Amino acid sequence: MAKSNKSTERRKARVRRAIATRSADRPRLSVFRSSKQIYAQIIDDEKGVTLAAASTLEKEIRGAVKTGADIAAAKRVGQEIAQRAKKAGVGKVVFDRGGYMYHGRVKALAEGAREGGLEF
Predict the structure, then answer these.
(1) Can you spell out the DSSP letters for the chain?
(2) What digits encode the pLDDT tens for the residues 62-117?
(3) Which of 46, 73, 85, 114 could bond 65 through an S-S bridge, CB–CB 3.0 to 4.6 Å?
(4) What pTM does this model have?
(5) Residue 107, Cα to own-chain centre: how many angstroms?
């Protein structure tokens, strides 16, 4: 168990290093995926502030999707985070997949955010 945690932390650190070099002062769209839910937040690392957040636990999203653990739910969260980012005045972000493969729910969230108008 400890070995897999070390691997995950190493992957996450590698992704964050790459983001830090390419960020160009853009906020970061961070994704967290659990077995039952998916969460996204836009973070301004310079100020240390969360600008917008969305997850499958929210009432309006939970009512619109069957479960929080599928591609449809992830796409809906992506669209919602894009909408909230626009309200916060954010148009361009850097995508932080957080050590997860860019596949399945993570990819669906990114596509939903792009459809919603975020650029990355």
Answers:
(1) -HHHHHHHHHHHHHHHHHHHHH-TT--EEEEEE-SS-EEEEEEETTTTEEEEEEETTSHHHHHHSS-TTSHHHHHHHHHHHHHHHHHTT--B-EEE-TTS-SSTHHHHHHHHHHHTT-B-
(2) 999 999 999 999 999 999 999 999 999 999 999 999 989 999 999 999 999 999 99
(3) 73
(4) 0.89
(5) 10
Domain 2-115 fold: Nucleotidyltransferase; domain 5 (3.30.420)
Q: Where are the domains of the chain?
A: 2-115
> With contact defined as beta carbons under 8 Å apart, do 37 and 57 qualify?
yes
Instruction: Indicate the residue type of 21.
Output: T
